[in-house]
Design a protein that fits this description.
Blueprint lengths: L3 H9 L2 H23 L4 H17 L1 H14 L3 E5 L2 H15 L3 E4 L3 H5 L2 H7 L3 E4 L2 H8 L16 H15 L11 H18 L2 E4 L3 E3 L4 E6 L3 H7 L3 E7 L3 E2 L2 H15 L7 E6 L9 E7 L3 H5 L15 H5 L1 H6 L10 H12 L4 H5 L9 H5 L6 H14 L4 H14 L2 H13 L13 H5 L11 H9 L1
Parallel strand pairs: 1-10, 2-3, 2-4, 4-7, 5-8, 7-10
Antiparallel strand pairs: 5-6, 6-9
The structure holds iron/sulfur cluster.
C-alpha cells in the first residue's frame, strides 16, 4: 500500500466513491446525533464508559487471568496469542483438528487484523463471511473500507452486479432476475448464506466484550447472522483482542447503551448474543477463546497512546471525519480506517513503515472525532503524540533543524527583533512558494506575506 497522501489523492479523484461516502456518512451521522440526543445522561454514560475502560486497562493482567479461569470453569479452552502468526497457527490447528475444510465467520475486526482468512486459505480451509457487507466485500474480491459498514464504498447497483456475477462461484447463485432493490438484495444474500449456516460445523467469531466475572462473551449485531454462527456449528472459535474485557455485568450495561446509539443509531441493537463456555445439548459442544495481543501491550505501555485501547469500534469517529469522508477507508491502508485507524494502526505495528508513519498526519485535527467518541478518546491528542514520534525518527532532519532554529531564535528577543527586521526589509525577494519538501504545503495554500513592519516596531513607534 502507498502512504496515505498518495492513496488519498487517488481516492479523491473518484467522484462516485466520494458521492457514495458522502451520502452514507451523512445519513449515519445525522441518525446517530438524534439517537444520542434522546438520552439526557449521555455525557455521564460517556464518562462512565471511559472510567470503566481505564480501570480495566490498568488492571488488565488481573482481569485476563479472571477471564481464563471463568472460561475454563465453564467448559471452554483459552489460548494466548502474542501476535498474528501465533493466533493464525492456533486457529488453523483447531479447525484442522475437527477435520472440516470450511468455516463460517461472524464479522470480526480482530480476524481481519491478523489476516485469518488468508492463513486458513493457505491450509486449504475456506472461510465464508456471513455479515452482509462482509459478504459483498468477499464476493467482490475487495477490501473493507469502514468498521461498521465494510462495503460503504459500494452503491446498490454495484452490489447487484457483484451478486449476479460472483455468488455462483461461492455457493448458491443469485436469482436470475435480480434488481437493486434492497429487499431483493437482502433476500439473495439470505438464501446464499442459509445453506452455509446449515452445513457448517465450525464457526469463527470475534467479540465486542468479554465479561471477566463469568467469562461471558458478547456479540452485538443487526442481521442475525451472528446468532446463526454462534449457535449452529459444533465448534466455536472466538478471536478477541485482550482490551475487550469489562470486569462485571454492571459495567457491560453501560456499553450496551453506548454502542448501539453510537454505531447504528439504534436504541438497542437487534441481536445481542452472549455465551459462557459450553452447555450440553445447547449450542456448540467445543468452545475456544484465542486472546490476542498483537501489539496491544506495547500500546498499553504508552501513557498517551493507550487511550486508543478504550475503543469499542462504534465507527462514529469515521462518520464525522472530513478526511475519511473524502478519502474513504482504503486510503488508510489498514484494517482500521478513519481517525481510530490513524492512531491504532501505528501503535499496533509501530511507525517504521511508510503507511504507518503517514497515518498520524491523515487528519485536520478538527476534533470532531473526539466530540462523538462514546468513550472520550482524545484522538487529536494521540495524533499529535504520534506525529512527534514519527518526526523523531531518522529521515526528518529538515523538520527537526527548522524547529530547533525557530526555538533558538524565539528564545532570544534581540535576535528575534533583528530577524524580523531583516525579513521585513527583504520581503520583495521572498518566494511565493516553498522549495523542497515544503512545496506540497504551498501547492494548495498561499504563503503569508511578511508585513513591512513588525508588530514590535509598530508598537514602539506608536505607543512609546
Ligand atoms: S475511537 Fe471512539 S468513536 Fe472511533 S470507533 Fe472507537 S469508540 Fe467509536
Amino acid at each position: 500500500m502507498p502512504a496515505f497522501p498518495e492513496a488519498a489523492a487517488r481516492a479523491t479523484r473518484d467522484a462516485r466513491l466520494r458521492a457514495n461516502l458522502r451520502h452514507a456518512t451523512h445519513t449515519i451521522r445525522d441518525k446517530r446525533a438524534r439517537a444520542v440526543a434522546e438520552l439526557a445522561d449521555w455525557e455521564q454514560l460517556r464518562a462512565a464508559g471511559k472510567a470503566i475502560k481505564d480501570h480495566t486497562l490498568r488492571r488488565l493482567d488481573h482481569y485476563l487471568v479472571q477471564v481464563e479461569e471463568a472460561v475454563t470453569a465453564a467448559g471452554g479452552t483459552v489460548h494466548w496469542a502474542a501476535d498474528a502468526e501465533e493466533a493464525n497457527r492456533i486457529v488453523t490447528g483447531l479447525v484442522r483438528a475437527t477435520g472440516e475444510r470450511e468455516v463460517v465467520k461472524v464479522k470480526s475486526m480482530a480476524t481481519q487484523e491478523i489476516g485469518l482468512n488468508e492463513a486458513l486459505a493457505a491450509e486449504g480451509i475456506t472461510a465464508y463471511e456471513t455479515d452482509l457487507a462482509e459478504l459483498i466485500v468477499q464476493l467482490g474480491d475487495d477490501r473493507p473500507s469502514h468498521i461498521l459498514v465494510p462495503a460503504i464504498h459500494r452503491n446498490r447497483g454495484e452490489i447487484r452486479r457483484i451478486f449476479a456475477e460472483r455468488m455462483a462461484a461461492w455457493g448458491r447463485p443469485a436469482p436470475e432476475v435480480l434488481t437493486d432493490a434492497p429487499a431483493e438484495l437482502a433476500e439473495a444474500a439470505r438464501l446464499h448464506l442459509r445453506e452455509k449456516f446449515l452445513r457448517a460445523q465450525v464457526a469463527v467469531s470475534g467479540a465486542n466484550f468479554i465479561v471477566a466475572e463469568t467469562g461471558t462473551l458478547v456479540v452485538v449485531e443487526s442481521e442475525g447472522n451472528g446468532r446463526m454462527c454462534l449457535t449452529l456449528p459444533r465448534t466455536l472459535i472466538s478471536v478477541v483482542g485482550i482490551e475487550k474485557v469489562v470486569p462485571t455485568w454492571r459495567d457491560l450495561e453501560v456499553f450496551l447503551q453506548l454502542l448501539p446509539r453510537s454505531s447504528t443509531a439504534e436504541r438497542m441493537n437487534p441481536y445481542t448474543s452472549l455465551w459462557t463456555g459450553t452447555t450440553g445439548g445447547d449450542g456448540p459442544s467445543a468452545f475456544h477463546l484465542v486472546l490476542l495481543d498483537n501489539g496491544r501491550t506495547a500500546a498499553l505501555a504508552d501513557e498517551i497512546g493507550r487511550q486508543a485501547l478504550r475503543c469499542i469500534r462504534c465507527s462514529a469517529c469515521l462518520n464525522v471525519c472530513p478526511v475519511y469522508e473524502r478519502a474513504g477507508g482504503h486510503a488508510y491502508g489498514s484494517v482500521y480506517p478513519g481517525p481510530i485507524g490513524a492512531i491504532l494502526t501505528p501503535q499496533l505495528h509501530g511507525t517504521a513503515g511508510t503507511v504507518e508513519a503517514s497515518l498520524p498526519f491523515a487528519s485536520s485535527l478538527c476534533g470532531a472525532c473526539y466530540e462523538v467518541c462514546p468513550v472520550a478518546i482524545d484522538i487529536p491528542e494521540v495524533l499529535v503524540h504520534l506525529r512527534e514520534q514519527v518526526v523523531r525518527r531518522p529521515g526528518h532532519r529538515l523538520e527537526r533543524a527548522a524547529v530547533a532554529a525557530a526555538g533558538y531564535v524565539l528564545d532570544r528577543p534581540a535576535l528575534l527583533a533583528a530577524a524580523e527586521r531583516a525579513l521585513a526589509r527583504s520581503r520583495r525577494l521572498h518566494p511565493r512558494r516553498l522549495p523542497g519538501p515544503g512545496r506540497a504545503w504551498t501547492d494548495t495554500r498561499d504563503l503569508p506575506q511578511v508585513p513591512a513592519e513588525s508588530f514590535r516596531d509598530w508598537w514602539r513607534r506608536n505607543r512609546t
